[in-house]
Automatic annotation (TrEMBL):
Highest taxon of source: Bacteria
Gene3D superfamilies: 1.10.1670.40, Hypothetical protein, domain 2
EC numbers for this chain: 3.2.2.21
Species this chain originates from: Congregibacter litoralis KT71
Protein name as it appears in the record: DNA-3-methyladenine glycosylase II
InterPro entries named among the record's database cross-references: Alkylbase_DNA_Glycosylase/TA, DNA_glycosylase, HhH-GPD_domain
Pfam families hit by this protein: HhH-GPD (PF00730)
HhH-GPD domain residues: 57-201
GO biological process terms held by the UniProt record: base-excision repair, AP site formation; DNA alkylation repair
Catalysed reactions listed for this entry: Hydrolysis of alkylated DNA, releasing 3-methyladenine, 3-methylguanine, 7-methylguanine and 7-methyladenine
SUPFAM superfamilies documented for this protein: DNA-glycosylase (SSF48150)
Alphabetized UniProt keyword annotations: DNA damage, DNA repair, Glycosidase, Hydrolase
């Protein structure tokens, strides 16, 4: 499966800004985005679930507290944590349930997490979203960050929506169809375009 490298990411940025002056302005103002990546596996998927609908700082704080409770961040060790311990670390009851389901699916083999890198995007998405608590946003972000897939466009991502609204001078929050159509112009590097939009959001 295609996997972005630092070199191919930089090349994709150049291709995108050559074809879109709005993205070119972002890169000229803030510099090119760096390839964002995390190690594939159970810990990263849990981290992304913690990031659902909260700030990045809040999610990192929760993740760090949970990691400190574990001798090793594995699905087996995670299931040994009590609900009280997870709540004390900042994990909501809902996210505790979701992440436990991920751990159980990983152990049972229903989620072959270490083999996802050898599967196409849609198959990865299907396997991930079969688990309660994992929607398209979580699956897309895992594909982008952990598997470094080049062509993801997470239309449900709030940072992407806000950045696209500003960069493309939209008077109102765009709907899903408009965002999907916008993403079409950035194929086959929509993940890289997302990185440029995120860069604008982080600096705005």
């Amino acid at each position: 499966m295609a996997r972005l490298t630092h070199a191919s990411y930089a090349e994709a940025v150049e291709t995108l800004i050559a074809g879109d002056r709005d993205l070119a302005r972002v890169v000229a103002r803030h510099g090119p985005p760096k390839l964002l990546s995390r190690p594939p596996g159970f810990p990263t998927l849990v981290y992304i679930i913690f990031e659902q609908q909260v700030s990045l700082a809040s999610a990192k704080s929760t993740y760090d507290k949970v990691a400190a409770l574990l001798p090793e961040f594995t699905a087996e060790a995670y299931l040994q944590l009590s609900d009280e311990a997870l709540r004390a670390a900042g994990v909501s009851r809902q996210k505790a349930r979701y992440t436990r389901l991920v751990a159980e699916a990983t152990i049972a083999g229903d989620l072959p997490i270490h083999a996802l890198g050898r599967k196409p995007d849609e198959e990865v998405r299907t396997l991930l979203t079969a688990i309660t608590g994992i929607g398209n946003w979580t699956a897309d972000v895992y594909l982008m960050l952990a598997l470094r897939r080049p062509d993801l466009w997470p239309v449900g991502d709030l940072a992407l929506v806000k950045a696209a609204t500003a960069i493309k001078s939209r008077p109102h929050k765009p709907d899903k169809l408009w965002l999907e159509n916008l993403g079409e112009r950035y194929r086959p590097y929509r993940s890289v375009a997302t990185g440029i939009f995120w860069r604008h959001y982080l600096h705005s």
